[in-house]
Structure formats: C-alpha cells, structure tokens
User: What shape does this take?
Amino acid sequence: MDFPQLQEQIRANDYVIPTAGQAPGYVQANLVILPADWAHDFLRFCQINPKPCPLLAVSEPGQPLLSDLGVETAVDVRTDAPAYYIYRDGQLAREQLDIRDLWQDDFVAFAIGCSFSFEEALVMAGLPVRHLNQGCNVPMFISNIPTREAGPFGGPHVVTMRPFSPRNAIHAIEISSRYPKVHGAPIHIGDPKHIGIKDLQKPDFGDAVNINDSEIPVFWACGVTPQMAMLAAKPPICITHKPGCMLVTEITNQTLSLS
Amino acid sequence: MDFPQLQEQIRANDYVIPTAGQAPGYVQANLVILPADWAHDFLRFCQINPKPCPLLAVSEPGQPLLSDLGVETAVDVRTDAPAYYIYRDGQLAREQLDIRDLWQDDFVAFAIGCSFSFEEALVMAGLPVRHLNQGCNVPMFISNIPTREAGPFGGPHVVTMRPFSPRNAIHAIEISSRYPKVHGAPIHIGDPKHIGIKDLQKPDFGDAVNINDSEIPVFWACGVTPQMAMLAAKPPICITHKPGCMLVTEITNQTLSLS
Assistant: This one.
C-alpha cells in the first residue's frame, strides 16, 4: 500500500495490523508518550543513548502534532499509528486503535527511529536481509550492554541481529552508518557471548533466523530498548505504538541519509 | 618532520628512509611508472580494482609532474619519493634516490592511495592501531581473492590486517569507508581461512602483530596488489617507490574524506 492510502486507512482505524513493508520509502517510527514530569528524564535518556533511542522528533507538552515529520500535514501521534498500547505503572493496561480520548495537556510525544529505514537501504543495495527473506520478525535479544542512566530510565540495550557474509557485513556497516537517526552502525559483530547472548536461536523477542557457518552475526541497537527502560521506570501512564504497528510519517527514508 | 622540510630533504636526496609518520596530515602514495604501451592496461586494471588500486592521479605520457597532487608546486614523480626500485622484465634491477636520469618521454606515472591516510583518520578517532603501537610494519598477506584481470595484469589481492575489538572494528569500517581513494572499507573481517590465509602470525610481507582472543582481524585491500600484478606481467621496465619510501604529496588526508 502506498503512503497516502496507508495514512488515510490508519487515520480512519481501517488499518490495524503491522506496518512492515507498507508505504515503502517512508519513515516509520517508534512512539513513546509520557507526562511532562517524566518527559525531561526520558529526553535526556534518549540524548545520551542515541544508538538505541535516535530521536526523530519530540513534541511540545500537550501538542499532539509533530510538524517535523509531516510535509503536507503534520503527523498526529493520536491517530497515525494503527494501534496503541496503554501502560499504567509499567503494566500493559489496554490496547486502542487511536488515543484521541486519552490525550492529556501535559503529554509529550517522542518519535524514535526504527530499523525499517536502514533495512530498506540494505535491500536497495542488494544485501540479503535474512528475516525479510524468511518472512518473519527480526530476532531481538536483551544484551548485557548497559544504557547510560537518566533519572529512572536505564537498563540493558536490546539488540536486533542480522546475519551476513563477511563482505556483506562490511557493506551493511557502511550503509547503516549513514543513517544515524535510525540506529546507525551496529554496536557489535561476531561472538554473541561477548554481549551476554547465549543462544542466537532463542531470541527474547521476534523470531529465530537461519545462520550459515560462514556468516557473521551483526547486532544493531533496537528501539525496544527505550520501551524496556520505560516499563522498568513504571510511570503512572505511558502510551506507545503496539509492537510492529509503527507511527507512519510523511518524510522519506532518503532524507535521513547523511549522503 | 613537517611537510615542507620533508619535501625539501627528499628532493635533495637527503632523506632516504621510510616515510611512515612523517609530514602528518599529508597524503603519501604508492608510485608505479610504466611505458605508455603498458600503461593503458594498467590504468584499466586500477579502474576495475579500485579497492587495492585507488588512483589518486595519472600523468600524461612523458609528463613527470602531477599537478593534482600539488598545491603550491606540482609533485615531481622523478624526485618526490625518497628512493626508487627499478624493475626490468619483472626483476628488481637496481635502487636509486631519484630517477631524473631514467625518465623516458613515454613514461606514465600512477599515484595510488596508501593506507597511511586512513590509518591517520583511525588514530585521530582514538582507535588503537596495533602495528603502530607495536612500532612495526603492518602485516600483509597474499589472499585467495582474485583481482579482475586487464591485459597482462591480474593475480591475487594482497591485504593488510589490523585487529580490533568488535566495537572498534565497526568504527574502523565506518571511518575507512569515508576514504575510498585510500582503499576505503575493508574487504574481509573475521576468519582468515575464508580468504585463504592460514596463519596470521606468518605474514607474507611486513611484521606479525599480537591479536587478543576477543579481537576480530580486519582486512583491507593493499597497494602491494598492483605491484605484484606488475611483477607478474614482466614489463621491460617499471619504476616504483622503494617499499615504505612513499611518494610524498602536497594534498592533505582531509581532502580525501567523503564527509
């Protein structure tokens, strides 16, 4: 589905499934919404942990529109993801298709870059991305690499893993390094034990993928990291996109590239 | 020694030793000089093998000055390397401090990028470069990766190896990828057997360096590749810089960076 159609259906609550592969070329983002008195620490957390939490946009308190992510119209964080999770005190409380009824005048919205953008660049460069070719979710692992703490926010880096031949791994590093706003270059390559991962066939989230003997696992910081940090901090209320059902924006992946 | 002093001493034949670490910030280059009837194939060889043979400049036939590599004065390939090797029919015939007496009006000079430039960028970024810290030459290996052939020129890629922690390896790939004119990103990481290297402690050229258990060997294409191709092609005459005694240019490493 192309961008205008997808945005229209999401806004009408007619599109309620994962957004992977939809609106090719357009940036999709992780969404975190917090009350203003929690937002300052979360903003600091993102800024000192840019690999897992690359900030694409932050709203003013009470402002649900993100003009930086729109071209013709601003992105409305209340309606522009297919579905939302509402957490209370760090526990999932319910799921909604939009959050117009829940909006508070002290809410601050954070749009955080998502690996879909650099994956598109990898595919365009002809690199085989295993989980895409296997038609499943990217495998994600809770590593032993700590984030830098800010107030109540901290915890480990969650990482995604994509296996590549050595030559393709180098190429994938080159390409993703040009996209610092969507996790940028990997944070680890090679031996998973080095970062506290015991078994690549048992991801903490997502699906296991095949890895050939001659391939090297390549690990990128993942946008689930700030979600885990938020859950552990237990804010009285927090709203995020439903996993996989990303905030769809009107800017293109191309605009995020350094080159 | 800074650049003007080094250039002056080299031109006066007062500086006749390796140039590593001298004139920091300035580009040093591999030099290959061939008669015009061999130069066309060699030029094609460089252009289809840009990783081992990144061309910085090529002279017109009979022209010993490379204006592209000079700012105030052009580089004179007859005098601007500390020492030269003269090969006849692929055999080292003699060594000279300059080649003014040997210059022919059909000679074509090729200045080929050298890893000194990206090594400087790695050091500036705070990455530890093992052979520099151990005070020896970089280890070089004849790999089983073939070059693409052009006329009589072909043969295997020679590679340099630098060991890094996984995180520093990623950073080294990011940095060197911004310097395509001086070998660019690596061509292999990880298992040396994958590219036909049996023992990292027995380099074909240069010196062995320590590798820690948690480190990954990273392999870059090397400027010795075109020299080996030239030797195997056995041109009636070929002149190169003496190994380690590079052609010193007046352009800065900074100007070679993509960013």
Remarks:
- DSSP finds six helices and 13 strands in chain A.
